[in-house]
Amino acid sequence: MCSGRRTGPMATRRMNYADAMVDTFRICFKEDPHFTVIGNEVLGIGPTRLQFEPLQAEYPDRIYFPPTSEAAFTALAAGAAMCGHRTFAHLGVASFTYPAVSSIANEVATIRLSSGGRIKAPFIMHLNHGVVMGTSSQHSESPQCMYWNLPGIEIALPSSGSEFKGLMRTAMNRDNPVMLFTHGLLYHVEDDVPEGEYTIPFGQAAVKRKGKDATVVATSLTVGVAMQAADILAKENIDVEVIDPRTLVPLDKKAILDSVAKTGRLVTADETRLNCGVGSEIAAIVAEEGFRSLKAPIVRVARAQAPVSAAPTHEAYVIPTPEKTVAAVKKVMA
């Protein structure tokens, strides 16, 4: 459960998530003359989108803005990757990938197996996910589990800019297709990002906060939600351990099971839906493999099983919040 691997001194720089992405791309461009970025609004549609412009000026022949046909340019980027060009494809808002599911499911996910390992697929697919203030149902999906059900794709969920850098650098050194999910509200969030080369191994969770009373497993933006909840609960002498899996494929089951063995209680906090969501799968794993450790039933905090409208009151009702997470922890502590 290491925090990451660095080569060289541990120098960091304060930057937001979007800047961390640009910093990582710049390293990738310098390292690999064939590395290519394809996609529109790579850093979202907010003010952070402007942070991409200097990189465009530096590498105009290796950054492509395709027509808004996700099915077409997903297939194009996948083909380029299979021909040896490491490709980062920003597929936009996660629900925009649905027209491209045929290529992703039938070609990208299966190519290593169907070719007997002869064809590599160094293809990184980047998706924005989550409820992002008034964007309604077509722009608010979190389909991580849909793609978790496609064997052959590795899945990473950074919760900060430093994690994006570490996970992206690891993805660059793999020959399997990788999906990176970024929550749309993370682009402006700042943290200390290691300078130079920095990697986070896939399949190694991070203990974001140590505790002894209850375990909260959270992903992506909801890691911050869980940390806020833990701060609130600490004032009531409830000591919460927060685990960030960082990758779903591979999943660090041991870190989760070890934490539950210590605390005896589990809450999952995640923005995928309650039915068949990330929290549901983690709950199933703990129920099956760590049942004897549990002192109380597992509680899931997840998106409600409903479409999302653009109304702020509806958004607040369906998403995980610190208050809902606090209530869930108190329920397992009762």
Estimate nothing, just give the exact number of structural domains. 2
Count of helical segments?
A: 12
How much is the radius of gyration in Å? 19 Å
* Span of the ends, CA to CA: 30 Å
Q: Strands of the largest sheet, in order across it?
A: 4-3-5-6-8-7-14
Kindly provide the name of the CATH class of the largest domain.
Alpha Beta
CATH homologous superfamily title of the largest domain = Thiamin diphosphate (ThDP)-binding fold, Pyr/PP domains
The biggest beta sheet reads: 7 strands, mixed
Number of strands: 16
Give the topology string: H per helix, E per strand: EEHEHEHEHHEHEHEEEEEHEEHEHEHH
Portion in beta strands: 15-25%
CATH topology grouping of the largest domain:
Rossmann fold
- The assembly state of the depicted protein chains is single chain
Compute the average pLDDT. 93
Explain what you see.
- This protein is of the alpha/beta class and 334 residues long.
- The chain is 35% helix and 22% strand.
- The chain has helices at 17-31, 53-58, 70-82, 101-108, 111-114, 144-148, 161-172, 222-234, 253-263, 278-289, 312-318, 322-333; strands at 5-6, 12-16, 36-39, 63-64, 87-93, 123-129, 154-156, 178-183, 190-194, 198-199, 206-209, 214-218, 240-244, 247-249, 266-273, 299-303.
- The protein has a 7-stranded mixed sheet with strand order 4-3-5-6-8-7-14.
- The two termini are 30 Å apart.
- The mean pLDDT is 93.
